[in-house]
Amino acid sequence: MSRRRRQRLAVGGLLAPAVILLVLVFVLPSVDLFRLSLAWMDSQRSIHPDVSFSNYREFAVNPYFHRMVWGSLKLTVWVACLCLLLGYPATYYMVHIGSTTYRTILYAIVVSPLLISVIVRTYGWVVLLANNGVVNGTLLALGLVDRPIRMLGTFGSVIVATVHVLLPFMMLPIASALQGLDPALERAAQSLGATPLQTFWRVTLPLSMPGVLAGTSLVIALTLGIFITPLLVAGPLQPLFAIGIYYVTLSQLNFPLGAALSFILLVFTLAVIGLVGRLLGIINRNVV
Amino acid sequence: MRRYLRPATALNVFSVLVYLFLLAPLVVVVLASFNSADFLSFPPSGFSLRWYQSLWESEVWGDSFRLSLIVMAVVTPLALLIGTLAAYALVRYSFPGKGLITTLIMAPMVMPQIVLGIALLTYFSALGLLDSLVGLVLGHLVVTLPFAVRLVSISVHNLDPTLERAAQNLGATPLQTFRLVTLPLLRPGLVAGAIFAAILSFGELAVTLLIAGARTTTLPLRIFNYTEYNFDPTINAVSTIFVLLALVLIIVLDRLIGLVRMG
Lengths: 288, 263
Description:
The structure holds 2 protein chains of 2 kinds. Chain A contains 13 helices and 2 strands. Chain A is mostly helical. Chain B is mainly α. Chain B is globular, with a radius of gyration of 23 Å. Chain B has helices at 7-32, 50-57, 59-92, 98-110, 113-127, 133-158, 161-169, 174-203, 208-211, 219-228, 234-256. In chain B, helix 2 packs across helix 11 (234-256), helix 3 packs parallel to helix 6 (133-158) and helix 4 packs across helix 6 (133-158). Chain B starts with 6 loop residues before the first helix and ends in a 7-residue tail after the last helix. The longest helix of chain B has 34 residues, at 59-92.
């Protein structure tokens, strides 16, 4: 047996289990879902498998779905901007801190949410924001309000909880970009007369842009698809795309429409990631 | 004379607040689990371990806990094995279609979770795999595989192929080389991959919520149901276990590969 042929066999053997698993439990379900999205359900709830675009048409004309898309876009902009505004300075602080012990503790705080189920993290926000929860309890005890403020169920609560759940996905890529940055470059800028602020604007920030780009597109993709966190803090009627899919499929049991909405969300997510990637790429090129 | 806040001080204060924000909901849940009141109340009315006791005595929580452990115990070795083989092939060899296969393996990570969940819901309902252990294991495998491949890949990257060649030149069989050279050198990546696969499976809810049912209520699914429909303060005790588990694993990960290098 030739060496080339042996190698090809080895690669095939090594990859076979993963490829078989993914074809059976990822590719085929996705193909099925697409086929289902072309079927339609009549008022008697029977599903007709003939090819039609009625679900996609329904999406195009029904204002309920337009509100969902708008809600998801609004949430995405809020969450991405807040994650960046909170995450970048906090990551910079973490990477530049002198003490190794302290830095490890901060890393642990950033990594720990990834190791704790999203349900537990979101549940924590329910405890904090409920009418008889910690925030309202504190406000009442301090006499700042005389009746609990309704926080759960609001769009604001969705923003806060989602930022909390996704912040590590912004901070970790930025951290690895800042770590990979050669400190000699910052020192060189300063010895050439740049102020600390100029050094940050002209050297550190542009060089950490790949991390910002990776973090931002990750956060955007995850925000568009997030549904457990908003479902728990704001309920199934919150106008968000992912929650709408959940509601249409599991409450109204309209599987074909749910399938079509799923595909629209998938394409939408890929488009937004591509667009943001290109946009940030242009900014990146101009800055550097 | 007006005094200005130094930019460095402002950055420090701001950053500390961000870290407190990250910690707040977890700290609150841990504190609430020791609260003696039987509804969500703040400030706490007294220290008590009654929720841990009710967790220990409860049959439904026990069932869910066992089920989650079983799924995790099946998913972790499978994800690690399949993932390690794939990672080795992807890092070591170049072959036609490599980009496509890499995309395929990483795709479940980028796919919106609700879409993956709905796809598996309709697919499994046709196969009769809804509300079954097999369905849960398959669903969790797809979710954990990309993470296993990624973490193991880092170790395969760092593995110097000349070491394996040297072992073979010195007369080791391929199996001996694998057991005595390759495996020990891959260990950090394998353990990190196993930890992430285990923890992801144990806490998985996005896909589970859509494909599980009354007979397969995992621990995260039970927390979800109780938070949504009938509140039970035992949730605080269960959640505290999740937090403690994460704390232990973080220490292990730090010893093993160093947290700072994980980003």
